[in-house]
Amino acid sequence: MDLSIIIVSWNVKKLLEKCLTTLYTHTRGVTFEIFVIDNASTDGTPSMVAEKFPRVHCITNATNKGFAAANNQGIKAAQSTYLLLLNPDTECIENSGLKMVEFMNSHSDVGVAGCHLQNPDGSHQPSVRRFPQLADQLCILSKIHHLFPRIKPVTEYLLTSFDYTKTHTIDQVMGAFFMIRSSVIKEIGYLDENFFNWFEEVDFCKRVASSQWKVAYTPVTNVIHYAGQSFKQVMPLSKQKVWNASVRYYFFKHHSFFTYCSISFASFLSIIQLSLYQLFNFVYTSKNNPRS
Known about the structure:
Elements: E1 3-9, H1 13-26, E2 32-39, H2 45-52, E3 57-61, H3 67-77, E4 82-86, E5 90-92, H4 96-106, E6 110-118, E7 124-125, E8 128-129, H5 134-141, H6 144-147, H7 152-158, E9 168-169, E10 172-173, E11 177-181, H8 182-188, H9 200-209, E12 214-225, H10 236-254, H11 257-288
Parallel strand pairs: 1-2, 1-4, 2-3, 6-12
Antiparallel strand pairs: 4-11, 5-12, 6-7, 6-11, 8-10, 9-12
């Protein structure tokens, strides 16, 4: 088998259906299998997959195991040379599977690769970043980048001047389209399940970079990404807590104890900041929109 496509889904049935339809429509010239790992959806996702895509291997979890743990379920069941971790809110508009397999075949030193992502309107979507450092994450946790979007630590972290028209060796690619050489899994292990969501692909790329393998971005193919559809269903404070837990754990693994403590303190302050904002917004809304 050339390619195992692993899709973790949570309450995005319609997007997943479109994703699977485009995969089967465009994927040719490679042998492939598809795994859908459903994280306890309540929208009928498993039934839809069974009815409309009988070739798909659907693993249904009784609870939401998170992104890393669910992907690992698919990785352990896969029997292919390459693994593609694919978000359910993506659409193939061409034979991306074949193009990425050919890219990996011709770049034997690449362990992980991502392609060019675009928004539903066809515009460019940024998908590469440098590894997180203390300065840029402090800016993001404090939300200062919303006031000063061109602040240097953040622009350097987001690689705002990156040339997406060329193939590059980079630090990390977005987990929405995450191609892995299976032999890399055997060497460095699975995704770290201590990450529930966010930073698991960053951690994996960090581990890849510490090995003999490279992480690459290539524009050989384009994929539509709707971006963050599952987590739009989560309230901002809950989402912030998940993100904060992931960034703290990442710094615990890969940075000094002092840096970890600094991030942890900033993480604590960010929750207070967001809680106060939500409280103020609730009071303001209630005052200006009283019940009749």
